[in-house]
Amino acid sequence: MLNRLDTSLRGLEDSEAQGGRFDIRDTVNFVWRQWAFILAWTILAGLLGAIYIARQTPLYTATTQLLLDPRKEKAAGPDSIYTDTALDLSVVESEIAVMRSTVLLKRVVLKEGLLGGSGTPAQPPQTNAGSTSAQPAPGGESDDAMSPAMVAAVEGLKNAVVISRAGQAYVINVSYTSDSPARAMQLANAIADAYVVDKLDARFEAAKRASNWLNDRLVELRQQLRLSEEAVTKFRADNNLAQAVPGASLNQEQLTQLNGRLVAARADTAERKSHLDLLTKIQAERGKLDALPEAASSGVLADLRRQENDLSRQEADLLARYTGAHPQVVNVRAQLSDVRRSIANTLRQIASDVRNNYNLALARQDAAEQALKEASGQSDLDASKAITLRELERTAAVNKSLFEDFLQRARLTQEQSTFEARDARIITPAVAPGIPSSPKRTQIILTSLILGLIVGIGAAYLREALNAGFTTPREIETLLEMPLLASISRFSPRTKDENGRLLSLPEYPLRMPLARSSEAIRSLRSAVQMSDVDHPPKVVQVTSTLPGEGKTTIALMMATSAAQSGQNVLFIDCDLRHPSASSQLRKEKAPGLIECLLGEIELEQALFYSERYRIWALSAGGESKNQPDLLASERMKALMAKVRSRFDVVIVDTPPMGPVIDPVIVSNLVDKVIYIVRWAATAREMVQQSLRQIAGQKKVAGIVFNHIMDDKAKKYGRFAYGYYYGSRYYRKYYEK
């Protein structure tokens, strides 16, 4: 086996060296030849992958998405008691570490009852609506206890969960893998909920601490506000001053500002009054409200008018094609009716807004007049008292503003203590997966098929490297250093003679000279003649390596082909051990070569003429136990010299060279040897070893490929022997 592989690889290396470069056609031909073998390996690998998938327990992965929102929303007011922290990579990684922490996962174990030992999460215990922390399941552990069972449960939960960031976004994926879809969904959501609850607990504790501090501060601020307001009231009482509107000024500049406000309020009231008068007039005359300025500037009303126009055109188009009862016409009319109702409602709303705006402007005018009256009543106060009063009022205003601010913060902390934190919230709850995440069937099947394809290609290459027989002319020329004389395809005779008998292959050169096999034999004869142009061979030996390679048939066909060309041909059956040629000539029991070599009869008595094949023939004769000695005798040499002078062509059929020595002995008496090799069957080593036995190997005219299967041979490329015989050109011009 190793010798065969080494010889094959050397042949392939020589072939590549002769080619000089990579040829894509060789690759295509290789795939063409071995596609079934490669496909079988690929399918086998795919089946193994499918078996592996079938033996695996399917695992399901459920994923929950959490959003870490850097824009923290406040519960109330423009400020908050918390400081907004920008979310960068380190902060996000810290939040992921919190979610994988033992403390948080322990809460999940207790809440989901994972210490029950059943392998299925227990139902979570019921909690109060206002509670934000999970209560331990019955029989669970305290917060500080970490028994081996708890450690194992937490580690199992940690190994089954995967927490990662979704790209560059502030989104965290919480994935849990389990053999149960419901369990995977439940625990993925439980971990996300535990994280959100943990954030709420931290926020609640911070709010409680801030609330306690603010309450203490409010006591002090309330006392300061009370003292400052009492001072303002006492000063007004001592100076007989009326209570002014908070924030009113005592100087002439503020009176001017109040007058300006009053003028602006009266102008606005007059404008609103004109709009109201126009509305009243339109309604009295039963006109259209579209004349109002507010209607003309309303974008909503303009959109509705456009919709009304579009639907009216659609109605007209549909009525041109259908009746009023058609479903499309009814549908368009219904839409048109809705739009017109919306227009009417919009106009009524605009009319209502006109009245409301006038009432509001009138109220502003009254307020401005009242403020001016109250402020003008303080203008007679002297400068020193005014300064003192303003100072007292400013102090009271500052204390009041500070008190209200802290009071607002105190209320804010109370609301934030129960307000859901917006910096961590679930945006995509996990759902029960319908498709298992493991094993990855498509990936495993594709990987198996790719590996099978690679192994199949490697096995196919090794298979060709270990191929026992010759398949291409290049292998003959490279390994044997001999020419390929001819290539004869394998086929069965189908032509019948005039008596209805199937013609044998040796008869084809006579009866079917334009047949494919006849053309191949003529090509072989020409190649033999050209093997030695100066001394054309006259006596030709035909042999092979093993029985069954078709040497006798080719020898007879060469003889009949030469006879058909008009030559005087002698066929000698030197296969004394298995005289198959004599059987075809129907002279298997007649005296022949053995009797001539034993001296029992003369050559002229043993020769006979075959009317069927139109050749002279010398059968093998009877049986003998010393065939090699007879073939090496002087009588054999004399016989060969005699027939050489009498006939134009002498074809000598000898036994295969593998089993016996007879062909080697006869090769010393002939001009050329034709060596028959069965295509893709005869072992290369045996052919090489047999050819070494022939004296000098110079007598070997070349190799003949026999029994070529055209369907397989053409897969070795256009250069391969039988290609042209099977092409349309041969069938068109030569084949009969």
UniProtKB/TrEMBL annotation:
EC annotation? 2.7.10.2
Which stretches make up the Tyrosine-protein kinase G-rich domain? 391-465
Annotated region Disordered: the residues are 116-145
Task: Give the UniProt subcellular location, in the record's own words.
Answer: Cell inner membrane
Task: Give any Pfam family that matches.
Answer: AAA_31
Which keywords appear in this protein's UniProt record, sorted alphabetically?
A: ATP-binding, Cell inner membrane, Cell membrane, Kinase, Membrane, Nucleotide-binding, Transferase, Transmembrane, Transmembrane helix, Tyrosine-protein kinase
All copies of domain Polysaccharide chain length determinant N-terminal, residue ranges: 21-109
Q: What catalytic activity does the UniProt entry give for this protein?
A: L-tyrosyl-[protein] + ATP = O-phospho-L-tyrosyl-[protein] + ADP + H(+)
Residues passing through the membrane, by range: 35-54
| GO MF terms held by the record | non-membrane spanning protein tyrosine kinase activity
Sequence similarity: Belongs to the CpsD/CapB family. Belongs to the etk/wzc family.
Protein known as: non-specific protein-tyrosine kinase
From which organism does this entry originate?
A: Labrys neptuniae
Give the lineage. Bacteria, Pseudomonadati, Pseudomonadota, Alphaproteobacteria, Hyphomicrobiales
